Every structure is written in structure tokens, then in C-alpha cells.
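assembly run, all chains below
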Amino acid sequence: MNSYEETYDLVTSHVREAAILESIQELLEWDERTKMPAAGGNYRADQAAYVAGLEHRKQTDPRLGEWLTELAESPLAADQSGDTGTVIRHLRREYDKQTRKPQKLVEELTRAAVEGQQIWAAARKANNFAAFQPILEKMVDLKKQEAAALGFETTPYDPLLDDYEPGESTENIAHVLSNLRDALVPLVQAIAESGQRPDVSILERTYPADAQESFGKQAAAAICFDFTAGRLDSTDHPFCCMLGPNDVRLTTRYDEHWFSDCFFSILHEAGHGIYDQGLPAEHYGLPTGEYVSLGIHESQSRLWENQVGRSRAFWEHFFPSAQQAFPQALGDVTREAFYGAINDVRPSLIRVEADEVTYNLHILIRFELEKALLEDQLSVADLPGAWDEKYMHYLGVASPTADDGVLQDVHWSAGLFGYFPTYALGNLYSAQFFGQAQEDLGDLDAQFRRGEFSNLREWLREKIHRHGKRYSAAELAERITGKPLSHQALIQQLSVKYGELYGL
Amino acid sequence: MNSYEETYDLVTSHVREAAILESIQELLEWDERTKMPAAGGNYRADQAAYVAGLEHRKQTDPRLGEWLTELAESPLAADQSGDTGTVIRHLRREYDKQTRKPQKLVEELTRAAVEGQQIWAAARKANNFAAFQPILEKMVDLKKQEAAALGFETTPYDPLLDDYEPGESTENIAHVLSNLRDALVPLVQAIAESGQRPDVSILERTYPADAQESFGKQAAAAICFDFTAGRLDSTDHPFCCMLGPNDVRLTTRYDEHWFSDCFFSILHEAGHGIYDQGLPAEHYGLPTGEYVSLGIHESQSRLWENQVGRSRAFWEHFFPSAQQAFPQALGDVTREAFYGAINDVRPSLIRVEADEVTYNLHILIRFELEKALLEDQLSVADLPGAWDEKYMHYLGVASPTADDGVLQDVHWSAGLFGYFPTYALGNLYSAQFFGQAQEDLGDLDAQFRRGEFSNLREWLREKIHRHGKRYSAAELAERITGKPLSHQALIQQLSVKYGELYGL
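ok done. output:
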């Protein structure tokens, strides 16, 4: 073993230990959100803070920087998308980002995020934006300082976006998302003006929680989520987390008078979980075993939730089972009526309740506003007005109150600027990948009708999951579809599906 | 703040960090035994080993030794049972024990325990003691080395016992336990010869798991286990663990054709949990917030399981609820028949299935044998013969095979020598404390009949829980009951109860 290889081993041992700490952090959070008795919260915060400190020390250990500097010039770094090249390139990048932020700023950001979320929750409850404004101003200022510390060429939005979508540029996504907006607004209008409305009340009948759980698990297993290496629990706000290789936890919630919430949460989180389960376990803790970006992660959840789970072919297979699971609610419902109801499109105020068409406009509004805040094109004081204006302009709806408007999301209070667009990127990538899968795998609808989902799962594993962070999101799109990220595949799929449903 | 107080703060911060690591270890184990998907096991072992390493480094940090040496001479250490005196005394003691063991021996013991448990499991399955003998010989040898490293005056059993029962002596418990044996053997014989047998088949009827869960939770809540600071889950081998202040997890298992297993596990673990919940939360991580010893912990579980949960008065309150919860199984059963069945006493081979009378003889056998092994009075090769002889002598039963005999317990394979007697000490202390509570609190049976358990819980909290490790087990017994540890209270209670039940 030569000296480079020894140094490489030091690096991988070091970051695998950091990954153990991160996996423990995930367990602390999973348990807090699914099992922990309420009174345990204070100590749980102490535990999480202590582990975060250990993890931060690992990530910013100067020895790691020295090892990575040494390796950057070595033959091990030469092949950028080889195993060692991928590991060295990404770790170097991450180490630089971590160490460029002054410790004092990191601590101020952490404190402001904790305080911000508390103030936000109270302000939202009181429907009072003014109470939230000062801490949001502070947070915007701190995020600008963070962007300055990280460095940028054109916009402070770039280095913040990079936390979630490594290597992506604000300019590029602004371009793609504005194309998306320009195509979506008229589609949403056309649907609204079609005068057609499915009967969604059938989804508001009684759906017993235990039947929802077993039906949801049946569907998640059918699309190849592996329950020997994962599980499903209930929580307040559904999420998926990876506690380690071969241990992926899905969560959902049960509303006995709204079918869609639980079921599509399960499919969505199972999509995330299938990606996590497809990452190479032996690379766990290294960039070669990590997901590409939040946008790519979201593309996997959206693909199973929307392209698959809201398709007619999916329900041609599953509707009889649904009728068996919920005989009282669905016994007298036709498959087509059900298919229409789960694909109801209507402009609304609340992002998390939005359908797959209008959802992207909610994201666009947030992206445009947070970008303007960071680029000093908009003041926090003017944010509510700008919010309402965009909702009227893009979706044709007016927020009567701030709690259902500008105060509805936790993200800004927690300092998550640059996060929102990844939701829309997920929708774009999912459409683009699914379109390619249809070309590569023949008649997918026919497979779904037979309850066969493993070809698609294998295709995703082969094309995306197994590579870890070897390729960036943009590179993956080019490699898999031969095209850069674009609005076209999504718009094309939505136009066909909803054109037929709404007679456009 | 003077220099001693500053040093004291360094010490408490340091050990509170070690306690966070220990609490994380508990969470890793709780999750592994209740929730984790099977495939997650390999990585879970990596996580646990890494955290154990961090914890060990904390506990043996030379700075801690220096601080404690400095404090040992300070005024803060003067009052042995004051807050600071208790903390300094116990930490010093623990630090000395930890650092007296050579690192190489610690690692050998860890490896032998992992290997030992694997070999034991296979040997038990194959009913083959010879396959287990070599690793057990190695383990006995390592434990003797450990005892030598820790130092002892009369027997190598002393320093090992001290891990579980700090400050207790082998000589004393050998004396107390032999008195117990001499009184128990004739009582067990008299019961066996009485010719009376309750009809236990009523406990083997169908008890649906969900009804067992809700009935068990109802009982645990009634005896004042606080479910806002704890929860109940299912597992293979029931246990209780404390994940932090205000977060105590009980577990049980459900056998739909054996009422006692689940229900008395819940009461037993809730007894442990009530102790954990009664420890002062603000002292969590310090000796002033820790349980006294395993024997005292077991006294709390046994008191609620046996003295309370197997009493006639308890069922005078709960039997109507039990009939409601299990109408098919208990609708035609009288309370007295039920009371007789849950108090069936019969000599048997398996410790974990033993009743409250014969249980102690199982423990005595193990204590006498493991003491003899460590004191070179018995060779591992002769262990199976000695085991069978004692079972015949004390309980009048013969083990037909090793898996139901000398191979039935995991403890020795894991290196837990000195652990077994704490089970019997728990029974002795529980009887002694309960006898005193009856004197202090008036007619406890009348309170139980009315479903009132809070006086007893408060008494335990006041007398035992709130003190943490301020007093040793022996000191507690003297303070609370005015008497040293003895077999008398237990024998007296068992004689009255079973004399009446079996017409002795």
C-alpha cells in the first residue's frame, strides 16, 4: 500500500465515523417524530446538540483538510467519476464549504433557526406577520453573510442553493422554472375554466386507519420497497429517513376522512425509501453511497407518487384491492370516478395540499420571492404584499390571512433558503426520467396493469441509485435522457393526462 | 466561584456528556429490540461499538482522574451523602474500577462476550455443552484476571459482584441466601406435597393481543407509571430502559394463549420504569440521579409484580376489568380461581418461567455454581453434573437435556458473573420494603381494593427513588426498615400467602 492509499484509508475511516454520528442523529429525529413521549423533548434536544457538535468537529477536523489536499494531487483523484475520484472531489468540496463559514456565524445561524421556528409557530398561530418580521429580517441578513463567506460570482442565491443541489446554478434553474411557469399558468387556467369537476367527496368517506395502513404497505411492497430493510410508522408530518444501510424508515399519518393524504404520502416516502435502499450499502457514509441532490431525491418520490401512483394503469391493477380494503367507502364507486377524484386539480392557497399541476406554481412563488430577498430586490416588510400579488397572478387565488399565506411554511424561519426549488426540480426530473423509462422499457402501463413494478425499479437502480454522487444531477439528466433539465417532459405529460381528464 | 467549584463543574459537564452517549446507546438498543428491521443489524453493531468507544474514552479520560483526585480532598467531598459528596465518591470509585482494568483485558473480555454468546446460542440449539465448554473456560479465566486486576481481599467474586451491587460483599449475600435456601426448600416441598393444584388452564385460553395491551397499559397507568414520560412496545425478551429523564420505555410480548407472560411482564417492567421516573431528572447523568444497584432496581419491579400484582386485593379491584377485557376467557371464571391460577407454585426447570417461590432457588443454584467456578472449587467440565445435582437437591427436578439445564441462560456466555444474585436480592428487598410500607401506610390491601396505588408509589419515591445513589443498598435497608438485608420478610410473606393458598 503506498502512502496515497494509506491517506485515502484515513479519510474514509474518518468520514465513515462522521456518518455513524449522522445516522445516530437520524435515529434521534425519527424516534422524536414517531415514538418519543412528549416529556422527553428537552433531553432529546441536548442529545441532538451534542451529537451535532461531535459531527461538526469531525467534518471540520484540520487533518481531514490536509489529507484531502494531499489526495487532490494524487492519481486516486484523477478519474473524476471513479470511486476514489468521486469521494475525494466531493469531500474536498464539502470540507471547503464547512470551513469557510466562520464558527461565530454558524452558531448565530443555529440560534436564529431555533428561535425563528419558535417565533414563526407563534406568529402563524396568531396570524401576525409583524411578529415574525424582525427575526426573518435577521435570518435573511445572516444568510447573506453566509453566502458572502462561501463566496459567489453572480448571486448570493448560488452558494445557498448549492447546499441542496450541488453544482446547480441559480441562473439555470431560474430559466427552466420560468419556462415552466409560462406553460403552467395557462394550463391551470384552462383546467379551471373547463367547468369539469370530479366528485372528490368519495375520498372524504370513512377510511379506517388500520385498513389504510395495510393497503398502503401492500402498495409500497408492490412497488418494491423492501420491508425487511425498512418499516412504516405514523407521525405528524410524513418523512422518510435512512438510519443506515438496510434500515430505511417511512412514515405517514392517518386521516380517516381523507384517503389521499395517507396513501400518497406512503407512495411518496416509499419512493424516497426505494432510492435510499438502492444506494450501494458498502459505500454508506462515502459520497459514492450518497444521494445526488434533494432534487434527484424528490424526483424518485414524485415518480412513484405521481407518474406511477396517480396513473390510470396503476389503479387498473389496484382498484379492486382498494375496494376490498375499503368496502364501505368504495363499494359503489367506479374506477374512473376514483381516478378522476385522485387527480382533482384546483388552484388553492396551501402548498402541501396542492395537486401535482398547481404544486409547481406554489414553489415558483417561493423561489422568486426568496431570491429577491437575498438579492435585495425585495424587503421583508414588503414580502406579504408580494406574496399575495403572485398568488393572484399565478393561481388566481387570494390569501385572506397570513397564516394561510406567507406564514404557511416553516422553511424560511429555519434558514432553509434555496431549498424550495428542489421540490419543483424533483417534479421536472421525475417527468424527464419517467419519459425515458417509457422509451427504454416498452409499455410500462401494461406492466403496471399487471402489478409489475420491478422493471421500473431496476431501471432506476441501474440508471440512478447505484451511482451515489458519482454524477451531478445535471450530468445524470444528460446521461440518462440525452437532454439537459427542462420543463418540457413535465408539461407534455401533464398536458396529455389532464387534457384527457378535463376535456381540454 | 472558587477553584474546587470550577473543577466540580468540569467533572459534572464531563460525566453528563458521557451520560448522553450512554442514553444514545440505550436508544440504539431499544430500537434494535423493538423496531429495527432485521437487515439493519450489521450497521447497528457498528453504531453501538463506535458509541461504546466514545463513552469509554470519556470514562477513562485522565483529566477526569486528576479532577477527582483534587476534589477528594476538598470540602465538597466532606459530606458523604450530600449532593457533591455523593457525586465525587461514586465517580472516584467508578473511575478507579474503569482504569484498573488493562485495556488489553477489556478488549479480550468484549471479544469473548460476543463470541461466547454466539457459541452459546449454537450450543444451546444443538443441546451440546461440550461445544460451549472451551469458551466458557476462557471466560471464567478472563473474569478471574479481571477480579485480580480490580483487587480483592477474600474472594474474586467480590469485585465482580460490585459491578452490579456496589459495596455489597459476597460473604454477606452468601450468608443471607443460604438462610433463604434453608427456609425455601421445605416450603417448596410442603407446597408440592399438599396435593392442591390450581387450574392453570384458564390462563391458557384465548387472550387477544390488543386486549392484553390495553389491559396491561391500564394496570401500568393505575400503579402510576407515567405514560406522558414513557411508552410500551413489544419485543422478544421484555425489558425496561431509560432513554433520558422523562423518557422511559417499557416492553412486553404477547402470547395469546398464556395470560401471565405479558401481564406480569408489564407490571414488572413498569416497576422498573416507576423507579426510573422517580429518579431526580435534574441529576440525570450524575450518581445522585442514578439507581442504587441492580438488586434495588429489581426490588422495585418485583414489588409491583408480586407483592402488589399477585395479591388478592389487587385482583379484588382489577378482576372485573379483566373479565371485561377478556370476556371469552374469563367470563365463567371466579376471582378466587383466577387468583389461585396466577399463584401456581411448582418446581420446574426453567428459571424465567418460575413462580415467585421457586424462582429464588434457581438463582441460588447459579450463585453457588458461579462462585465455585471463580474460587476454583469447581471446574467448567464438572459444571453440568453439579447443576443437575443441585436442581435435584433444591427443587426435586432433573434436567433431561442441557439446553433446558445448564445452557438455559445467556449470562455466563456474556461474562455476567455476579449478576444472578441481584435477582434474589431484588426479591428480598422488595419483601422487606413492602413489609415496612404496610406498617407505614396503614391498610394497603384496602387501598389496592379501591384501585389506589399512589400512596405506595409516593412512599417508594420518598424513601428510595429520589435519593439516587446517595445511600448504598445496605444503607437504604437499614434506614428504611431498621434492619439489614435478611431472608425473613420474604419467607414470612410467602409462608402466610402460600400457607393459606395451599392449606399448609
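The interface with chain A takes residues 17, 20, 23-24, 27-28, 31, 35-40, 42-44, 46-47, 50-51, 54, 226-231, 233, 243-247, 284 of chain B (CB under 8 Å).

Residues 3-34 of chain B form the longest helix (32 residues).

not gonna interpret more than that til we talk
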